[in-house]
Amino acid sequence: MGGSCEPFDRGGNESCRHAPRQSILDTEMNINELLSGNGQNLDAARLDEVIDSLSSEIDKSIKTAPLLNNLSVALKIRFERSGDPADIDRSIDAARASLELTPPEHRSEYLDRRVNLGAGLLAAATRADSPAQLEEAIALFRSASMTVQSSSTATLALASANLCQGLQLLAERTGQAEYLAEAVAAGERAMESIPSNSADRPAVLLNLANALRAYADRTAQWSYLDGAIEYARQGVAIARTGDPRRPGHVSDLALALWSRFELRGELDDLDEAIAASKVAASQTPNGNPRLPGRLTNLSALLCMRFERTGDLGTLKAACNTAKAAVQVTRPCDPQRPGRLSNLASALHVQFHAEGNRDRPTIDNAILAYRDAIDKLPGNHSFLPEVMTHLGNALRTRAYYFNELTDLSEAYRNGANALVKLPADHPFLATSYLSLARTLHALHVLTRNDEHLNAAVRLALTAASHSAAPVSIRIKAAQTWGDWAASRAQDDDAYAYGAADGYAATVSLLPLLAWWGLRRSSQERWLTTWSALPAIAAAYLTESRRTGTAVEVLEMGRSVMWGHLLELRVDLDALFKVDAELARRLDSIRTQLDMPDSRIMSWPLSEPVPLQNVVTWSDLRVQRLGFARPCSIH
Length: 633
Prior knowledge:
This protein has 31 helices and no strands. It has helices at 24-27, 31-34, 44-59, 65-82, 85-100, 107-127, 131-147, 153-174, 177-193, 201-219, 224-238, 246-264, 267-282, 291-309, 312-327, 336-353, 359-375, 383-401, 405-420, 428-446, 449-463, 470-485, 492-507, 509-512, 519-528, 532-542, 546-557, 559-567, 572-577, 579-592, 610-624. With 633 residues, it is mostly helical. Among the domains are: 1-244, Serine Threonine Protein Phosphatase 5, Tetratricopeptide repeat; 465-568, no CATH class; 569-624, no CATH class. α7 (131-147) runs antiparallel to α8 (153-174) and α19 packs antiparallel against α20 (428-446).
Protein backbone atom coordinates (compact mmCIF):
# COMPACT_ATOMS: atom_id res chain seq x y z
CA MET A 1 0.00 0.00 0.00
CA GLY A 2 2.82 2.34 -0.71
CA GLY A 3 2.29 5.92 -1.78
CA SER A 4 2.89 7.09 -5.31
CA CYS A 5 4.40 10.56 -4.98
CA GLU A 6 7.41 11.24 -7.21
CA PRO A 7 10.65 12.80 -5.90
CA PHE A 8 10.67 16.59 -6.25
CA ASP A 9 13.31 18.63 -8.04
CA ARG A 10 14.05 22.20 -9.08
CA GLY A 11 13.90 21.45 -12.77
CA GLY A 12 13.09 24.32 -15.10
CA ASN A 13 14.25 26.98 -12.68
CA GLU A 14 17.52 27.59 -14.48
CA SER A 15 17.72 29.00 -17.98
CA CYS A 16 20.14 27.72 -20.59
CA ARG A 17 21.61 31.15 -21.24
CA HIS A 18 25.06 29.67 -21.87
CA ALA A 19 23.88 27.60 -24.82
CA PRO A 20 24.33 28.82 -28.42
CA ARG A 21 21.66 31.26 -29.51
CA GLN A 22 20.33 28.92 -32.20
CA SER A 23 19.71 26.04 -29.75
CA ILE A 24 16.22 24.61 -29.97
CA LEU A 25 16.00 25.30 -26.23
CA ASP A 26 16.28 29.03 -26.89
CA THR A 27 14.37 29.35 -30.12
CA GLU A 28 11.42 27.01 -29.61
CA MET A 29 11.02 26.18 -25.95
CA ASN A 30 11.01 27.90 -22.63
CA ILE A 31 12.85 25.35 -20.49
CA ASN A 32 11.73 27.07 -17.31
CA GLU A 33 8.08 26.40 -18.12
CA LEU A 34 8.51 23.05 -19.80
CA LEU A 35 10.30 21.28 -16.96
CA SER A 36 8.26 22.82 -14.14
CA GLY A 37 5.59 20.76 -12.42
CA ASN A 38 7.33 17.49 -13.29
CA GLY A 39 7.06 18.24 -17.00
CA GLN A 40 3.28 18.50 -17.09
CA ASN A 41 3.54 20.71 -20.19
CA LEU A 42 5.56 18.12 -22.09
CA ASP A 43 4.20 15.17 -24.01
CA ALA A 44 6.54 12.25 -24.71
CA ALA A 45 7.75 13.56 -28.08
CA ARG A 46 8.56 17.02 -26.78
CA LEU A 47 10.30 15.58 -23.73
CA ASP A 48 12.48 13.45 -26.02
CA GLU A 49 13.23 16.57 -28.03
CA VAL A 50 14.30 18.49 -24.94
CA ILE A 51 16.57 15.63 -23.81
CA ASP A 52 18.13 15.26 -27.28
CA SER A 53 18.76 19.01 -27.54
CA LEU A 54 20.32 19.25 -24.09
CA SER A 55 22.45 16.18 -24.77
CA SER A 56 23.58 17.68 -28.08
CA GLU A 57 24.69 20.90 -26.42
CA ILE A 58 26.59 18.99 -23.73
CA ASP A 59 28.21 16.74 -26.35
CA LYS A 60 29.64 19.92 -27.91
CA SER A 61 31.60 20.36 -24.65
CA ILE A 62 29.25 23.09 -23.46
CA LYS A 63 29.12 21.47 -20.04
CA THR A 64 27.61 24.17 -17.85
CA ALA A 65 25.99 23.46 -14.51
CA PRO A 66 22.54 24.74 -15.66
CA LEU A 67 22.58 22.57 -18.80
CA LEU A 68 23.59 19.48 -16.88
CA ASN A 69 21.03 20.15 -14.16
CA ASN A 70 18.18 20.55 -16.63
CA LEU A 71 19.27 17.41 -18.49
CA SER A 72 19.22 15.57 -15.17
CA VAL A 73 15.69 16.75 -14.45
CA ALA A 74 14.41 15.94 -17.94
CA LEU A 75 15.86 12.42 -17.80
CA LYS A 76 14.31 11.82 -14.39
CA ILE A 77 10.91 12.91 -15.69
CA ARG A 78 11.22 10.45 -18.57
CA PHE A 79 12.31 7.71 -16.18
CA GLU A 80 9.23 8.28 -14.01
CA ARG A 81 7.07 7.81 -17.09
CA SER A 82 8.84 4.89 -18.74
CA GLY A 83 10.86 3.19 -16.02
CA ASP A 84 13.95 2.87 -18.24
CA PRO A 85 16.90 2.38 -15.80
CA ALA A 86 19.30 3.95 -18.29
CA ASP A 87 17.47 7.27 -17.95
CA ILE A 88 17.82 7.46 -14.18
CA ASP A 89 21.47 6.43 -14.33
CA ARG A 90 22.18 9.24 -16.82
CA SER A 91 20.11 11.62 -14.71
CA ILE A 92 22.19 10.91 -11.59
CA ASP A 93 25.46 11.28 -13.54
CA ALA A 94 24.33 14.63 -14.94
CA ALA A 95 23.21 15.82 -11.50
CA ARG A 96 26.59 14.92 -9.99
CA ALA A 97 28.43 16.72 -12.79
CA SER A 98 26.22 19.78 -12.36
CA LEU A 99 26.88 19.85 -8.62
CA GLU A 100 30.66 19.52 -9.16
CA LEU A 101 30.59 22.55 -11.49
CA THR A 102 28.66 24.69 -9.01
CA PRO A 103 30.81 26.61 -6.48
CA PRO A 104 29.54 26.14 -2.88
CA GLU A 105 29.62 29.90 -2.41
CA HIS A 106 26.81 30.13 -4.97
CA ARG A 107 24.56 29.12 -2.10
CA SER A 108 21.16 28.97 -3.73
CA GLU A 109 22.22 27.10 -6.88
CA TYR A 110 24.43 24.74 -4.90
CA LEU A 111 21.60 23.74 -2.55
CA ASP A 112 19.15 23.35 -5.43
CA ARG A 113 21.50 20.96 -7.19
CA ARG A 114 22.09 18.92 -4.05
CA VAL A 115 18.32 18.51 -3.80
CA ASN A 116 18.14 17.52 -7.47
CA LEU A 117 20.86 14.91 -7.05
CA GLY A 118 18.99 13.53 -4.04
CA ALA A 119 15.76 13.41 -6.06
CA GLY A 120 17.45 11.30 -8.74
CA LEU A 121 18.94 8.94 -6.17
CA LEU A 122 15.55 8.60 -4.46
CA ALA A 123 13.83 7.84 -7.77
CA ALA A 124 16.40 5.12 -8.45
CA ALA A 125 16.08 3.68 -4.95
CA THR A 126 12.29 3.60 -5.29
CA ARG A 127 12.57 1.36 -8.35
CA ALA A 128 15.35 -0.90 -7.06
CA ASP A 129 16.52 -2.24 -3.72
CA SER A 130 19.48 0.12 -3.39
CA PRO A 131 20.15 0.99 0.29
CA ALA A 132 23.27 3.01 -0.58
CA GLN A 133 21.38 5.31 -2.97
CA LEU A 134 18.54 5.73 -0.50
CA GLU A 135 20.89 6.60 2.34
CA GLU A 136 22.79 9.10 0.19
CA ALA A 137 19.53 10.73 -0.90
CA ILE A 138 18.27 11.08 2.67
CA ALA A 139 21.62 12.54 3.78
CA LEU A 140 21.45 15.14 0.99
CA PHE A 141 17.86 16.10 1.89
CA ARG A 142 18.60 16.32 5.62
CA SER A 143 21.62 18.52 4.97
CA ALA A 144 19.74 20.77 2.55
CA SER A 145 16.66 21.13 4.77
CA MET A 146 18.83 22.18 7.74
CA THR A 147 21.01 24.52 5.65
CA VAL A 148 18.14 26.42 4.05
CA GLN A 149 16.05 26.98 7.18
CA SER A 150 16.70 30.72 6.94
CA SER A 151 17.16 30.82 3.16
CA SER A 152 14.96 29.86 0.21
CA THR A 153 11.52 28.66 1.27
CA ALA A 154 11.05 26.95 -2.10
CA THR A 155 14.25 24.94 -1.69
CA LEU A 156 13.33 24.15 1.92
CA ALA A 157 9.94 22.87 0.74
CA LEU A 158 11.44 20.59 -1.89
CA ALA A 159 14.22 19.32 0.37
CA SER A 160 11.72 18.61 3.15
CA ALA A 161 9.21 16.95 0.80
CA ASN A 162 11.88 14.67 -0.59
CA LEU A 163 13.16 13.89 2.91
CA CYS A 164 9.58 12.98 3.89
CA GLN A 165 9.31 10.59 0.94
CA GLY A 166 12.75 9.05 1.44
CA LEU A 167 12.10 8.37 5.11
CA GLN A 168 8.79 6.68 4.25
CA LEU A 169 10.63 4.35 1.89
CA LEU A 170 13.29 3.67 4.53
CA ALA A 171 10.59 2.89 7.12
CA GLU A 172 8.82 0.57 4.67
CA ARG A 173 12.00 -1.39 4.08
CA THR A 174 13.21 -1.51 7.69
CA GLY A 175 9.98 -1.42 9.71
CA GLN A 176 11.37 1.32 11.98
CA ALA A 177 8.57 3.63 13.16
CA GLU A 178 10.92 6.47 14.17
CA TYR A 179 11.60 7.20 10.50
CA LEU A 180 7.88 7.81 10.00
CA ALA A 181 7.73 10.34 12.83
CA GLU A 182 10.60 12.24 11.17
CA ALA A 183 8.83 11.87 7.80
CA VAL A 184 5.66 13.51 9.17
CA ALA A 185 7.69 16.41 10.59
CA ALA A 186 9.48 16.87 7.26
CA GLY A 187 6.18 16.74 5.37
CA GLU A 188 4.69 19.40 7.62
CA ARG A 189 7.76 21.60 7.03
CA ALA A 190 7.34 21.19 3.30
CA MET A 191 3.65 22.07 3.41
CA GLU A 192 4.34 25.22 5.43
CA SER A 193 7.12 26.32 3.06
CA ILE A 194 5.72 25.57 -0.40
CA PRO A 195 4.21 28.64 -2.12
CA SER A 196 0.43 28.48 -2.43
CA ASN A 197 0.62 28.86 -6.23
CA SER A 198 3.33 26.25 -6.75
CA ALA A 199 2.61 23.47 -9.24
CA ASP A 200 4.20 21.13 -6.69
CA ARG A 201 1.81 22.01 -3.84
CA PRO A 202 -0.65 19.14 -4.58
CA ALA A 203 2.22 16.64 -4.52
CA VAL A 204 3.51 18.09 -1.24
CA LEU A 205 0.07 17.70 0.32
CA LEU A 206 -0.23 14.10 -0.89
CA ASN A 207 3.28 13.37 0.32
CA LEU A 208 2.31 14.50 3.82
CA ALA A 209 -0.93 12.51 3.56
CA ASN A 210 1.06 9.36 2.79
CA ALA A 211 3.35 9.95 5.76
CA LEU A 212 0.41 10.43 8.12
CA ARG A 213 -1.28 7.29 6.82
CA ALA A 214 1.88 5.23 7.15
CA TYR A 215 2.45 6.57 10.66
CA ALA A 216 -1.11 5.68 11.67
CA ASP A 217 -0.84 2.19 10.18
CA ARG A 218 2.46 1.50 11.92
CA THR A 219 1.80 3.06 15.35
CA ALA A 220 -1.97 2.54 15.69
CA GLN A 221 -2.47 6.27 16.31
CA TRP A 222 -5.53 6.14 14.15
CA SER A 223 -6.59 9.78 14.41
CA TYR A 224 -3.81 10.59 11.95
CA LEU A 225 -5.87 8.90 9.22
CA ASP A 226 -8.39 11.73 9.16
CA GLY A 227 -5.59 14.23 8.69
CA ALA A 228 -4.19 12.09 5.88
CA ILE A 229 -7.56 12.01 4.10
CA GLU A 230 -8.06 15.76 4.55
CA TYR A 231 -4.66 16.61 3.02
CA ALA A 232 -5.21 14.07 0.24
CA ARG A 233 -8.57 15.63 -0.64
CA GLN A 234 -6.99 19.10 -0.71
CA GLY A 235 -4.18 17.90 -2.96
CA VAL A 236 -6.53 16.22 -5.44
CA ALA A 237 -8.81 19.28 -5.46
CA ILE A 238 -6.04 21.72 -6.46
CA ALA A 239 -4.11 19.43 -8.83
CA ARG A 240 -4.16 20.88 -12.31
CA THR A 241 -5.97 19.09 -15.10
CA GLY A 242 -3.38 17.46 -17.31
CA ASP A 243 -0.73 17.17 -14.61
CA PRO A 244 0.70 13.66 -15.13
CA ARG A 245 1.01 13.33 -11.35
CA ARG A 246 -2.71 13.72 -10.75
CA PRO A 247 -3.58 9.98 -11.10
CA GLY A 248 -1.00 9.34 -8.39
CA HIS A 249 -2.65 11.89 -6.14
CA VAL A 250 -6.02 10.20 -6.62
CA SER A 251 -4.39 6.84 -5.89
CA ASP A 252 -2.92 8.18 -2.65
CA LEU A 253 -6.36 9.40 -1.55
CA ALA A 254 -7.64 5.87 -2.18
CA LEU A 255 -4.89 4.45 0.06
CA ALA A 256 -5.85 6.71 2.95
CA LEU A 257 -9.53 5.78 2.60
CA TRP A 258 -8.52 2.11 2.46
CA SER A 259 -6.70 2.38 5.77
CA ARG A 260 -9.69 4.04 7.40
CA PHE A 261 -12.04 1.39 6.05
CA GLU A 262 -9.89 -1.35 7.58
CA LEU A 263 -10.10 0.47 10.91
CA ARG A 264 -13.78 1.42 11.01
CA GLY A 265 -15.48 -0.80 8.45
CA GLU A 266 -17.46 2.07 6.89
CA LEU A 267 -18.58 0.84 3.46
CA ASP A 268 -18.66 4.40 2.09
CA ASP A 269 -14.90 4.65 2.64
CA LEU A 270 -14.36 1.41 0.72
CA ASP A 271 -16.61 2.44 -2.16
CA GLU A 272 -14.92 5.82 -2.46
CA ALA A 273 -11.50 4.16 -2.36
CA ILE A 274 -12.52 1.77 -5.17
CA ALA A 275 -13.89 4.61 -7.29
CA ALA A 276 -10.71 6.63 -6.78
CA SER A 277 -8.51 3.64 -7.59
CA LYS A 278 -10.41 3.02 -10.80
CA VAL A 279 -9.87 6.65 -11.81
CA ALA A 280 -6.16 6.43 -10.97
CA ALA A 281 -5.64 3.19 -12.92
CA SER A 282 -7.68 4.28 -15.94
CA GLN A 283 -5.76 7.57 -16.22
CA THR A 284 -2.34 5.91 -15.99
CA PRO A 285 -0.93 5.15 -19.46
CA ASN A 286 0.16 1.65 -20.45
CA GLY A 287 3.88 1.31 -19.91
CA ASN A 288 3.93 3.73 -17.01
CA PRO A 289 5.85 2.06 -14.14
CA ARG A 290 3.17 3.22 -11.68
CA LEU A 291 0.39 1.27 -13.41
CA PRO A 292 1.12 -2.13 -11.79
CA GLY A 293 0.89 -0.64 -8.30
CA ARG A 294 -2.40 1.07 -9.04
CA LEU A 295 -3.86 -2.12 -10.47
CA THR A 296 -2.69 -3.99 -7.37
CA ASN A 297 -4.39 -1.52 -5.06
CA LEU A 298 -7.62 -1.73 -7.05
CA SER A 299 -7.53 -5.53 -6.91
CA ALA A 300 -7.09 -5.57 -3.14
CA LEU A 301 -9.96 -3.14 -2.66
CA LEU A 302 -12.24 -5.20 -4.90
CA CYS A 303 -11.42 -8.28 -2.81
CA MET A 304 -12.51 -6.41 0.31
CA ARG A 305 -15.72 -5.38 -1.44
CA PHE A 306 -16.43 -9.04 -2.26
CA GLU A 307 -15.86 -10.06 1.36
CA ARG A 308 -18.50 -7.54 2.43
CA THR A 309 -21.06 -8.20 -0.34
CA GLY A 310 -20.39 -11.73 -1.64
CA ASP A 311 -20.67 -10.56 -5.25
CA LEU A 312 -18.73 -13.08 -7.37
CA GLY A 313 -18.40 -10.62 -10.24
CA THR A 314 -16.44 -8.31 -7.97
CA LEU A 315 -14.16 -11.17 -6.96
CA LYS A 316 -13.55 -12.15 -10.59
CA ALA A 317 -12.61 -8.56 -11.39
CA ALA A 318 -10.26 -8.53 -8.39
CA CYS A 319 -8.45 -11.69 -9.56
CA ASN A 320 -8.16 -10.50 -13.15
CA THR A 321 -6.82 -7.13 -12.04
CA ALA A 322 -4.27 -8.76 -9.73
CA LYS A 323 -3.06 -11.00 -12.58
CA ALA A 324 -2.77 -7.99 -14.90
CA ALA A 325 -0.71 -6.14 -12.28
CA VAL A 326 1.79 -8.99 -12.03
CA GLN A 327 1.97 -9.37 -15.82
CA VAL A 328 2.96 -5.72 -16.37
CA THR A 329 5.48 -5.66 -13.51
CA ARG A 330 9.12 -5.99 -14.50
CA PRO A 331 10.86 -9.07 -13.04
CA CYS A 332 13.45 -6.89 -11.25
CA ASP A 333 10.92 -4.41 -9.81
CA PRO A 334 11.30 -4.29 -6.00
CA GLN A 335 7.51 -3.97 -5.75
CA ARG A 336 6.96 -7.30 -7.52
CA PRO A 337 6.78 -9.29 -4.24
CA GLY A 338 3.89 -7.14 -3.06
CA ARG A 339 2.02 -7.70 -6.30
CA LEU A 340 2.61 -11.44 -6.14
CA SER A 341 1.33 -11.47 -2.56
CA ASN A 342 -1.77 -9.55 -3.60
CA LEU A 343 -2.45 -12.02 -6.41
CA ALA A 344 -2.01 -14.90 -3.97
CA SER A 345 -4.47 -13.29 -1.57
CA ALA A 346 -7.07 -12.86 -4.32
CA LEU A 347 -6.65 -16.51 -5.37
CA HIS A 348 -7.00 -17.64 -1.75
CA VAL A 349 -10.27 -15.74 -1.44
CA GLN A 350 -11.42 -17.18 -4.78
CA PHE A 351 -10.69 -20.71 -3.59
CA HIS A 352 -12.93 -20.27 -0.56
CA ALA A 353 -15.66 -18.71 -2.70
CA GLU A 354 -15.71 -21.52 -5.25
CA GLY A 355 -18.09 -24.34 -4.49
CA ASN A 356 -15.87 -26.96 -6.15
CA ARG A 357 -12.67 -26.05 -4.17
CA ASP A 358 -10.46 -26.06 -7.25
CA ARG A 359 -7.05 -27.46 -6.24
CA PRO A 360 -4.99 -25.44 -8.80
CA THR A 361 -6.36 -22.19 -7.36
CA ILE A 362 -4.95 -22.75 -3.87
CA ASP A 363 -1.77 -24.27 -5.31
CA ASN A 364 -1.18 -21.14 -7.40
CA ALA A 365 -1.84 -18.93 -4.37
CA ILE A 366 0.82 -20.79 -2.38
CA LEU A 367 3.30 -20.62 -5.25
CA ALA A 368 2.76 -16.86 -5.56
CA TYR A 369 3.30 -16.34 -1.81
CA ARG A 370 6.50 -18.42 -1.92
CA ASP A 371 7.74 -16.47 -4.92
CA ALA A 372 7.08 -13.19 -3.08
CA ILE A 373 9.01 -14.38 -0.01
CA ASP A 374 11.95 -15.50 -2.15
CA LYS A 375 12.19 -12.04 -3.72
CA LEU A 376 11.97 -10.03 -0.47
CA PRO A 377 15.11 -9.07 1.47
CA GLY A 378 15.32 -10.82 4.83
CA ASN A 379 14.87 -7.57 6.78
CA HIS A 380 12.01 -6.12 4.72
CA SER A 381 9.10 -4.89 6.83
CA PHE A 382 6.58 -6.59 4.52
CA LEU A 383 8.11 -10.05 4.91
CA PRO A 384 6.29 -11.04 8.15
CA GLU A 385 2.92 -10.24 6.59
CA VAL A 386 3.59 -12.38 3.53
CA MET A 387 4.85 -15.24 5.72
CA THR A 388 1.68 -15.01 7.80
CA HIS A 389 -0.53 -15.10 4.70
CA LEU A 390 1.41 -18.06 3.30
CA GLY A 391 0.77 -19.89 6.56
CA ASN A 392 -2.96 -19.24 6.16
CA ALA A 393 -2.96 -20.61 2.60
CA LEU A 394 -0.99 -23.70 3.61
CA ARG A 395 -3.41 -24.37 6.44
CA THR A 396 -6.30 -24.11 3.99
CA ARG A 397 -4.73 -26.66 1.65
CA ALA A 398 -3.97 -29.00 4.54
CA TYR A 399 -7.61 -28.89 5.61
CA TYR A 400 -9.21 -29.50 2.21
CA PHE A 401 -6.68 -31.88 0.63
CA ASN A 402 -5.16 -33.63 3.64
CA GLU A 403 -1.71 -32.21 2.90
CA LEU A 404 -0.45 -32.69 6.44
CA THR A 405 3.10 -31.54 5.71
CA ASP A 406 1.59 -28.14 4.90
CA LEU A 407 0.77 -27.66 8.58
CA SER A 408 4.43 -27.96 9.51
CA GLU A 409 5.39 -25.39 6.90
CA ALA A 410 2.52 -23.14 8.02
CA TYR A 411 3.78 -23.33 11.62
CA ARG A 412 7.36 -22.46 10.60
CA ASN A 413 6.24 -19.45 8.59
CA GLY A 414 3.94 -18.23 11.34
CA ALA A 415 6.59 -18.58 14.04
CA ASN A 416 9.21 -16.81 11.91
CA ALA A 417 6.79 -13.97 11.19
CA LEU A 418 6.29 -13.38 14.92
CA VAL A 419 10.03 -13.21 15.49
CA LYS A 420 10.43 -10.56 12.79
CA LEU A 421 7.62 -8.25 13.96
CA PRO A 422 8.31 -5.48 16.52
CA ALA A 423 6.41 -5.84 19.79
CA ASP A 424 4.29 -2.72 19.10
CA HIS A 425 3.38 -3.54 15.49
CA PRO A 426 -0.39 -3.47 14.73
CA PHE A 427 -0.07 -6.56 12.50
CA LEU A 428 1.30 -8.62 15.38
CA ALA A 429 -2.19 -9.59 16.57
CA THR A 430 -3.04 -10.92 13.10
CA SER A 431 0.11 -13.05 13.13
CA TYR A 432 -0.63 -14.32 16.64
CA LEU A 433 -4.13 -15.34 15.57
CA SER A 434 -2.88 -17.01 12.37
CA LEU A 435 -0.32 -19.10 14.26
CA ALA A 436 -2.98 -19.92 16.85
CA ARG A 437 -5.22 -21.32 14.12
CA THR A 438 -2.37 -23.45 12.80
CA LEU A 439 -1.79 -24.85 16.29
CA HIS A 440 -5.49 -25.55 16.66
CA ALA A 441 -5.44 -27.42 13.33
CA LEU A 442 -2.58 -29.51 14.70
CA HIS A 443 -4.65 -30.18 17.82
CA VAL A 444 -7.57 -31.38 15.69
CA LEU A 445 -5.20 -33.72 13.89
CA THR A 446 -3.23 -35.04 16.88
CA ARG A 447 -5.64 -34.49 19.83
CA ASN A 448 -2.62 -33.14 21.69
CA ASP A 449 -3.85 -30.73 24.37
CA GLU A 450 -0.53 -28.90 24.35
CA HIS A 451 -1.37 -27.64 20.87
CA LEU A 452 -4.82 -26.52 22.05
CA ASN A 453 -3.46 -24.75 25.10
CA ALA A 454 -0.81 -22.96 23.05
CA ALA A 455 -3.48 -21.93 20.52
CA VAL A 456 -5.72 -20.50 23.25
CA ARG A 457 -2.81 -18.58 24.77
CA LEU A 458 -1.91 -17.05 21.41
CA ALA A 459 -5.52 -16.07 20.75
CA LEU A 460 -5.65 -14.44 24.18
CA THR A 461 -2.43 -12.56 23.38
CA ALA A 462 -3.86 -11.35 20.08
CA ALA A 463 -7.04 -10.13 21.78
CA SER A 464 -4.93 -8.21 24.31
CA HIS A 465 -2.71 -6.46 21.75
CA SER A 466 -3.83 -2.85 22.11
CA ALA A 467 -2.03 -1.65 18.96
CA ALA A 468 -4.15 -3.87 16.70
CA PRO A 469 -7.42 -2.83 15.03
CA VAL A 470 -10.29 -3.75 17.33
CA SER A 471 -11.91 -5.88 14.60
CA ILE A 472 -8.91 -8.25 14.81
CA ARG A 473 -8.89 -8.23 18.60
CA ILE A 474 -12.57 -9.10 18.86
CA LYS A 475 -12.18 -12.03 16.43
CA ALA A 476 -9.25 -13.27 18.51
CA ALA A 477 -11.27 -13.02 21.71
CA GLN A 478 -14.18 -14.95 20.22
CA THR A 479 -11.78 -17.59 18.89
CA TRP A 480 -10.24 -17.90 22.36
CA GLY A 481 -13.72 -18.44 23.79
CA ASP A 482 -14.78 -20.92 21.09
CA TRP A 483 -11.73 -23.14 21.49
CA ALA A 484 -11.94 -23.19 25.26
CA ALA A 485 -15.69 -23.90 25.02
CA SER A 486 -15.00 -26.95 22.84
CA ARG A 487 -13.51 -28.65 25.94
CA ALA A 488 -15.68 -27.04 28.60
CA GLN A 489 -17.66 -30.24 29.23
CA ASP A 490 -14.47 -32.15 30.03
CA ASP A 491 -12.59 -29.65 32.16
CA ASP A 492 -13.76 -26.75 34.36
CA ALA A 493 -10.59 -24.84 33.53
CA TYR A 494 -11.65 -24.69 29.89
CA ALA A 495 -15.15 -23.56 30.90
CA TYR A 496 -13.55 -20.78 32.92
CA GLY A 497 -11.38 -19.86 29.94
CA ALA A 498 -14.39 -19.83 27.60
CA ALA A 499 -16.18 -17.42 29.93
CA ASP A 500 -13.15 -15.13 29.96
CA GLY A 501 -12.80 -15.22 26.17
CA TYR A 502 -16.42 -14.37 25.52
CA ALA A 503 -16.40 -11.70 28.23
CA ALA A 504 -13.35 -10.13 26.57
CA THR A 505 -15.26 -10.09 23.29
CA VAL A 506 -18.13 -8.20 24.89
CA SER A 507 -15.74 -5.74 26.55
CA LEU A 508 -14.46 -4.76 23.09
CA LEU A 509 -17.92 -3.98 21.66
CA PRO A 510 -17.91 -0.30 22.74
CA LEU A 511 -14.61 0.13 20.88
CA LEU A 512 -15.84 -1.73 17.81
CA ALA A 513 -19.13 0.19 17.58
CA TRP A 514 -17.60 3.43 18.77
CA TRP A 515 -19.50 6.65 18.45
CA GLY A 516 -17.37 8.07 15.62
CA LEU A 517 -19.08 5.60 13.30
CA ARG A 518 -22.39 6.37 11.71
CA ARG A 519 -25.30 5.02 13.66
CA SER A 520 -26.12 2.47 10.93
CA SER A 521 -22.56 1.12 11.12
CA GLN A 522 -22.69 0.90 14.91
CA GLU A 523 -25.92 -1.07 14.64
CA ARG A 524 -24.43 -3.39 12.00
CA TRP A 525 -21.44 -4.23 14.19
CA LEU A 526 -23.62 -4.81 17.25
CA THR A 527 -25.98 -7.01 15.27
CA THR A 528 -23.04 -9.10 14.05
CA TRP A 529 -21.98 -9.81 17.63
CA SER A 530 -25.42 -9.72 19.26
CA ALA A 531 -25.31 -13.31 20.56
CA LEU A 532 -22.02 -12.94 22.43
CA PRO A 533 -23.26 -11.25 25.66
CA ALA A 534 -25.71 -14.08 26.34
CA ILE A 535 -23.11 -16.76 25.58
CA ALA A 536 -20.57 -15.03 27.81
CA ALA A 537 -23.10 -14.71 30.61
CA ALA A 538 -23.98 -18.40 30.35
CA TYR A 539 -20.36 -19.51 30.75
CA LEU A 540 -19.76 -16.97 33.51
CA THR A 541 -22.78 -18.33 35.36
CA GLU A 542 -21.54 -21.88 34.85
CA SER A 543 -18.23 -20.88 36.41
CA ARG A 544 -20.10 -19.34 39.38
CA ARG A 545 -19.43 -15.71 38.49
CA THR A 546 -22.99 -14.48 38.36
CA GLY A 547 -22.10 -10.90 39.25
CA THR A 548 -19.76 -10.64 36.30
CA ALA A 549 -22.40 -12.31 34.12
CA VAL A 550 -24.88 -9.54 34.92
CA GLU A 551 -22.25 -6.89 34.20
CA VAL A 552 -21.47 -8.45 30.82
CA LEU A 553 -25.14 -8.62 29.88
CA GLU A 554 -25.58 -4.97 30.83
CA MET A 555 -22.49 -3.98 28.87
CA GLY A 556 -23.74 -5.70 25.73
CA ARG A 557 -27.21 -4.21 26.10
CA SER A 558 -26.15 -0.64 26.75
CA VAL A 559 -23.52 0.13 24.11
CA MET A 560 -25.85 2.10 21.83
CA TRP A 561 -27.73 3.55 24.76
CA GLY A 562 -24.48 4.80 26.27
CA HIS A 563 -23.52 6.48 22.99
CA LEU A 564 -26.91 8.17 22.77
CA LEU A 565 -26.60 9.47 26.32
CA GLU A 566 -23.21 10.96 25.46
CA LEU A 567 -24.81 12.84 22.58
CA ARG A 568 -28.12 13.80 24.22
CA VAL A 569 -26.82 16.45 26.59
CA ASP A 570 -29.29 19.27 27.27
CA LEU A 571 -27.84 22.34 25.58
CA ASP A 572 -30.43 24.89 26.78
CA ALA A 573 -28.18 26.27 29.50
CA LEU A 574 -25.25 26.49 27.12
CA PHE A 575 -27.33 28.42 24.57
CA LYS A 576 -27.77 31.18 27.15
CA VAL A 577 -24.03 31.40 27.77
CA ASP A 578 -22.54 30.75 24.31
CA ALA A 579 -25.10 30.30 21.54
CA GLU A 580 -22.48 29.76 18.81
CA LEU A 581 -20.78 26.98 20.76
CA ALA A 582 -24.14 25.32 21.43
CA ARG A 583 -25.02 25.44 17.72
CA ARG A 584 -21.71 23.81 16.83
CA LEU A 585 -22.31 21.02 19.33
CA ASP A 586 -25.83 20.46 18.04
CA SER A 587 -24.61 20.28 14.43
CA ILE A 588 -21.85 17.81 15.28
CA ARG A 589 -24.07 15.46 17.26
CA THR A 590 -26.63 15.51 14.43
CA GLN A 591 -23.94 14.19 12.07
CA LEU A 592 -22.83 11.56 14.57
CA ASP A 593 -26.39 10.36 15.16
CA MET A 594 -27.44 10.05 11.49
CA PRO A 595 -29.57 6.87 11.30
CA ASP A 596 -28.87 6.05 7.66
CA SER A 597 -25.63 5.79 5.75
CA ARG A 598 -25.26 8.39 3.03
CA ILE A 599 -24.70 6.95 -0.43
CA MET A 600 -22.58 9.22 -2.62
CA SER A 601 -20.23 8.66 -5.53
CA TRP A 602 -16.56 9.59 -5.57
CA PRO A 603 -15.26 12.20 -5.00
CA LEU A 604 -18.20 13.69 -3.11
CA SER A 605 -18.52 11.07 -0.40
CA GLU A 606 -17.18 12.26 2.94
CA PRO A 607 -17.73 9.97 5.94
CA VAL A 608 -18.17 11.57 9.35
CA PRO A 609 -14.61 12.55 10.34
CA LEU A 610 -12.95 11.68 13.61
CA GLN A 611 -12.45 15.43 14.09
CA ASN A 612 -16.19 15.75 14.77
CA VAL A 613 -15.91 13.24 17.60
CA VAL A 614 -12.89 15.00 19.05
CA THR A 615 -14.59 18.36 18.71
CA TRP A 616 -17.72 17.13 20.49
CA SER A 617 -15.67 15.76 23.36
CA ASP A 618 -13.41 18.79 23.62
CA LEU A 619 -16.27 21.28 23.56
CA ARG A 620 -18.12 19.37 26.28
CA VAL A 621 -14.99 19.34 28.41
CA GLN A 622 -14.42 23.02 27.67
CA ARG A 623 -17.87 24.26 28.72
CA LEU A 624 -19.66 21.48 30.53
CA GLY A 625 -16.95 19.62 32.39
CA PHE A 626 -17.81 16.11 31.21
CA ALA A 627 -15.14 13.44 30.98
CA ARG A 628 -13.76 12.49 27.58
CA PRO A 629 -14.94 9.15 26.13
CA CYS A 630 -12.53 6.24 26.05
CA SER A 631 -10.09 6.29 23.15
CA ILE A 632 -9.75 3.68 20.46
CA HIS A 633 -7.02 1.13 21.03
